[in-house]
Amino acid sequence: MNFRIKLLAGVLLVILATSCKKEKETKGSGKISFEFDHQVDGQLVAFDTMMYVNAAGNHYLITDFQYFVSDFILYKSDGTQVLINKEKDIHYIDSSIPSTLLWSVADDIPEGDYDSISFTFGINQQKNVTGLFVNPPEVNMFWPDFMGGGYHYIKLNGKWKNPDNQEVPFNFHMGIGSDTTNTGEVVYVQNYFKRTLPASSFTIHKGWTLSVIVVMNIDSWFTTPHLWDWNVIGGSIMQYQWAMQLAKENGMDVFTIGSIF
Q1: 24, 81 in Cβ contact below 8 A?
Q2: 15, part of any domain
Q3: Is residue 51 a part of any domain in this protein?
Q4: Angle 89-92-97 (CA atoms, 0-180°, nearest 5)?
Q5: Which of 69, 96, 191, 241 has the greatest number of C-beta atoms within 10 Å?
Q6: pTM of this prediction?
């Protein structure tokens, strides 16, 4: 009897060991890439043409934009989080450099089902320090040290028509803000924010590359929850924390998923 029990136990151990080895061997990974599209009124953005009207009735055009996204996290259905950071964790996007609109991630992404994708718009406080970048084009995003240092989160440039029908430049620039306390002390305010993309579930298959199109709806910067009127707010906001706070709150719904395939 003892011999039979030992024999059965041995067989079970062999089966379990074989199953575990097989499972380990069959587990794999795939790749993921992000493409960044930019729209106004649901259409791909057109530059240098006074063809847009925001919710406040301002006629405007876009000349160019640059911005950072960082700390992309992929959330698995089992609760696991995958942080993209093997090669880089900050991606720079520039309307004048087409190659920046596509980010082929170096990380191997474990296969399986994922519920959602999140990222940080801008750069978080720990990383956004002067000297992080030393080469162009990223170094050209520097934020003045007297205003907190580090780098712009976004430069969105264009023109709007004022009530006199004159074209006036605007610089929709965001970065670290500053406030002054009642005692005269200057305190810095972090304006980066986290965005979890709606409808961003996906599946990674072994050996496959998944493409994710992320859309920035530029008109959303000027719509909700705050109606953006350049005739009231003015064309330059980077020295006004109250204005950057409005921009930050408006930015919460700017990014959506175009498609995943």
Answers
A1: no
A2: no
A3: yes
A4: 145
A5: 69
A6: 0.89
